[in-house]
Amino acid sequence: MKKIFAVLFLMSLGILNAQIKIKNIADFSGVESKQLIGYGLVVGLNGTGDGASSQITVQSIKNMMDRFGVTVPENKIKPNNVAAVIVTASLPPFSKVGSKIDVTVSSVGNARSLEGGLLLLTELHAAKGEIFASAQGPVSIGGFNTASKGNKIRKNYTLVGRIPNGAILTKSNSNNIIQNGDIVLNLREGDFSTAEKIAKKINKFLKINLATAQDSKSISIIVPDSVSSSNKIVRFVSNIENLEIIPEQKARVVINERTGTIVSGGNVTISEVAVSQGNLVIQIHNNSEELSLGGFTHKTTDTNIEAVADKARVLVMKAATVQDLARTLNSIKVTPRDLISIFQSLKVAGALQAELIIL
Hints:
By secondary structure, this protein is an alpha+beta fold. The protein has 3 domains: 20-31 and 177-245, Aspartate Aminotransferase, domain 1 (Alpha-Beta Complex), CATH 3.90.1150; 34-169, no CATH class; 252-358, no CATH class. The chain is built from 7 helices and 24 strands. A 6-stranded antiparallel β-barrel has the order 4-5-6-11-8-7. Strand 13 and strand 14 form a beta hairpin. The chain is flat.
C-alpha cells in the first residue's frame, strides 16, 4: 500500500494579524474582463485534420471558398489538413483598439492534432454579439502526437493550443467604474466584519463619511464632485485600494483525503471532548486550580490534551488547538487516515469550533 504523508500547515497569529491591502481582497465593480469567442479554421496540418467525415469542416471550407469566388463541390473537399476550432480569449478591462491579447484554440471536430497548424482570420465576439477582436496566427501546442504502424507517441495534449498575442482589438473595452456617482468595492469572500472595517478605514482616510458597507460583500463609496469633475478618479481609486486593514478570517479546517493534507488556521479551537480511535484514547479537558495569594483567591485554567496509545506513550499539551492536537498525534505516528477520521468525528461531536471542508 502506498504510504501517505500528512502535512499540517500552521498559520501563526502574526501572519493572521498582518495588514492586507484592500486591492488584494476586493475588486471594483465595473472593472471586469470580457469573455470573447469565435469559430474558425486551422489549416496546414500534416494529415491530422478533421477529415471528410466532419460535415462542419467541409461546410466551413466551402463557405470560405465561395467568399473568395472559388466554387468547389462539397463531395470533392477532403479536409485532412484542416480542423474546425473554437477560439476563446479574455479581454482585460480598459483595453484599447490595437492592443494584442492571447487566444486559446480548441478543436471541435475529429482532428487528431493541431500541431503545426495556422489559424485563419477569425472574428471574436462578446456575449451580445459585438465584435471586439480578430485573431490569426500559428498555433502553439507545446507537444506532439505521432503514430506509425500501430505505435503512438504523444507528449502533452495536442487538441488545444495557444497563440500568444494572436488577437488584435478592433474595439475598446469601455469600463465605467463610476456608477450613479458611486464606486463599489466587492469583497472576493463575503464577511460583514471585514466590509465594515473597510468602510471605517476609508472614511478615516478621507476624513469624511463617504463609504458605507451595503452587505457582506459590497462597500459603496460616494465620489466627491471635486474628484469626478477634475478627473482625479485614478488617484482616488489608487489611494483607496492601497489602504491596509486586518481582514477577519473564518475558522476553517480543510482536509484533502486523497493526499492526507490538513490545512488549519491559527484561530481554530477544540472544546472538551473524549475520542477513542482503535487503541488510541484522546482526552481534551480543562484543569482548574485555585491559588491563594495574600488573602485573595486566584483561579487559573489550563486546557490539556492527553493522547494515550499505550502505557508507554502519554503526552500532555497545554492548549486545545488543531495545531497542538495534530502535533501530538503525529508524534505518536497516528496514520493520516486516522488523523482525518478524528477531525471528522470532532466536528460531528460539536467539539471542533470551525468549519470543516473536505476536498
